[in-house]
Sequence to fold (334 residues):
Amino acid sequence: MATRWGLCGAGKISNDFSVAMKTLPPGDHQIAVIAARSLERAKEFAKKHGIPKAYGSYEELANDPDIDIVYLGVLHTEHWRVALLFLNTGKNVLCEKPFAMNSGQVKDLIAAAKKNNVFLMEAIWSRCFPVHAEVRRLLAEEAVGEVKLVKAYFGSPQLHIPRSVEKGLGGGALLDIGVYCLQFVLMVFNGERPESIQATGVLLDSGVDESVAVVMKFSRNRMAFCAFSIAVRLPNDAVISGTKGSIKVVGPMHCPTRLVVNNKEMEYPLPEPCLPLNFTNSTGLRYEAEEVRQCLLKGLKESPRMPLADSVLLTGIMDEIRKQVGVSFSQDSQ
Fold:
């Protein structure tokens, strides 16, 4: 039986998710429904992507019995409210990153998933890429000796995009793209909590972070450095330095197709899209979709690639970085 997906939100990321789905066997995955806040927009999206059903409200999707999992691709600020709607109606949920606006909201989502005995995953699609799987394999066999330093960069000029710069839309570099650098560090260090976090950054007039640098210290004298910005392009690569060599995830590190291990390069090409994409390498969303399918087939309630404990730690680190840099959202006082 194909995994039946319901898409929530008819924006840019849902478009790319739908295009990525067409690179997977139709016997395994089927987008059964698209739900948007306006029926007209949902119908237009359904027509473009060949989706059989369209809803003009999220509630209709929540009450549809013929869905195996909901993919949540709405604004950051809406994740908590909308994800709770689905979890509390007994739906499995793949929620776009950042999971929610802060640790309190993330804990609410996890509690609701446990209470309703459903699957929940933060859509850190990077973790499902073959490159990241290979990195985990290399680290497990200590291919570069003991890891001492991890560096990750992500900069993308986005100051012209309202959702990137407006506080009311959950803007800022950290929640949108910094999350990728931090999750990479946590993956390398196996979900270990850092012993210390030092962050500094500059803010836009709107009160969100434009550029941030973070240094984290882990046990056994291991360190990580991350820099991210919505003002400038950065190398967008990630480097793991060990006592016996290095692993470089060639940019774009959040959706990579190339890996350099001790100067030996490996390539993992992506399938070509059948329709135009909004974001880089978006057909790679197929890996995340397949990961979810495998979890559901095994009856798992979370993904071993992006466990809920990692999401809790990731959000906690982001809360601390925001505190140090001086960014707060209205959700923090709720």
Q: What stands out?
A: Residues 308-325 form the longest helix (18 residues).
